[in-house]
Design a protein that fits this description.
A hairpin with a 2-residue loop joins strand 9 and strand 10. A 6-stranded mixed β-sheet has the order 6-7-8-3-9-10, sandwiched between helices. A 4-stranded antiparallel β-sheet has the order 2-1-4-5, covered by helices on one side. The protein is built from 14 helices and 10 strands. The chain is 45% helix and 15% strand. Helix 1 (5-57) runs antiparallel to helix 2 (66-75), helix 8 (235-244) crosses helix 10 and helix 12 (350-356) packs across helix 13 (359-367). With 374 residues, the protein is of the alpha/beta class. It has helices at residues 5-57, 66-75, 83-88, 90-105, 171-178, 201-205, 222-227, 235-244, 248-253, 271-285, 301-314, 350-356, 359-367, 369-373; strands spanning 124-132, 148-156, 160-164, 186-191, 194-195, 208-211, 289-293, 319-323, 335-340, 343-348.
Length: 374
């Protein structure tokens, strides 16, 4: 970038040479340590034999015990054989320990109240003048830069809201605030009419189903990865969630079906399949609030269309926050909120926003330009 390619190559070459020298030095030390241990252990064995054989010849020491004593002397070095390697890796282990303790000892960004309120039975989510800024965030003029500013919305059971806009507009920030990963700076955010800061975090999160852009799958079976969302789910519920997430054909292709191990970081499955597993999890959780962050990412058009129909059917009666760059299925949204630089620039239904001819309309036209020309 900007003509810095050669400079970066030279820097990488220099670092590579330094790494090679360090590795050579480490290999030399390792070889020296191994050689010394072998030499000292065999020297110890020879010295024990040199002392013990005259004692056996003199009848002071029984010859039966001579091999035992010799082998005991040889194996005694195994107790200290790993100490040089431990000393060699001591500093890297200490550095790793410091990094771990930095995480463990860090003060949490959000803490539960001393006496949390019981979670309201009637679910709803409302925001009033909701604003948030990350610590140390300032704009070019030195003023506080808001990641989210003065956001208002009302989300009741059965209502669907879509958050759209360019990257960095504040969509994912809102998700973090709802999930209580951060505390907002100004305004209100209420669940069931109660300030979320007065509720227990775990109880609130138990009422939220999330499909994020990055779904983590554990090194275990597909069944157990699904049951994370609802450990008490019945086989019938699992089968229904699989069908609704368009996973049936994929699971039938696996050698052991639901009991197939996914491997480390689930590298055996594609991004689209991973996304559908996340959707099946959200369906199994059956939470009153469902947050869908790019739920159809990595899916082909046919699968996306089928999955959207299932999702709209399964979310009837739930509160839904739909975050997307891909303006597909927006007709089913009760309200669309267009964010830009943390602020609401447009809001309304899909038809209303298209009729306004603003930013949303331009985004929709650009995404559908190929189809329009065809």
């Amino acid at each position: 970038a900007f003509g810095q390619e050669q400079r970066q190559k030279d820097r990488l070459q220099k670092l590579s040479q330094e790494l090679v020298v360090a590795q050579q030095r480490t290999a030399q030390l390792t070889g020296l340590q191994s050689g010394l241990i072998v030499f000292l252990s065999n020297f110890g064995l020879w010295w024990v034999l040199r002392l013990a054989i005259p004692l056996v010849n003199a009848g002071i020491f029984s010859g039966v015990y001579l091999p035992v004593v010799a082998l005991a002397a040889l194996t005694s070095f195994e107790a200290v054989q790993s100490l040089p390697a431990a000393a060699q890796h001591l500093e890297s282990c200490l550095q790793a320990g410091r990094r771990l303790f930095e995480v463990v000892d860090a003060d949490p960004e959000v803490i539960d109240p001393a006496t949390p309120l019981p979670l309201p039975a009637e679910p709803s989510l409302t925001a009033r003048q909701l604003s948030f800024t990350y610590s140390g965030s300032v704009d070019a003029l030195g003023e506080t830069g808001f990641a989210l500013q003065n956001l208002d919305f009302d989300l009741a059971s059965g209502k669907k809201i879509a958050l759209v806009g360019p990257s960095g507009a504040g969509k994912s920030t809102l998700v973090s605030l709802v999930l209580r990963f951060w505390d907002f700076n100004q305004g209100e955010l209420c669940y069931g009419g109660e300030d979320v800061r007065r509720l227990q975090q775990d109880e609130l999160r138990a009422r939220i189903g999330l499909v994020s852009q990055t779904t983590y799958l554990f090194n275990t079976t597909l069944r157990e990865n699904l049951l994370i969302a609802n450990p008490q789910a019945t086989p019938e519920q699992i089968a229904a969630a699989i069908q609704q997430a368009q996973l049936t054909d994929f699971i039938q292709s696996l050698p052991d079906g639901l009991d197939t191990w996914l491997g480390e970081q689930a590298q055996r499955i594609s991004g689209g399949e991973r996304q559908r597993v996340a959707i099946a999890r959200a369906i199994l959780r059956d939470a009153p609030l469902l947050i869908l962050d790019e739920p159809t990412a990595n899916l082909d058009a046919i699968t996306e269309s089928q999955l959207l129909k299932e999702l709209h059917a399964q979310t009837e009666g739930r509160m839904v926050i739909w975050i997307t760059h891909h303006l597909v299925g927006m007709e089913a949204m009760d309200e669309i909120i267009l964010l830009s630089e943390g602020k609401v620039v447009e809001r309304g239904t899909h038809t209303e926003l298209l009729n306004q001819g603003g930013l949303y309309c331009r985004m929709w036209v650009i995404q559908n330009q190929i189809l329009v020309e065809a």
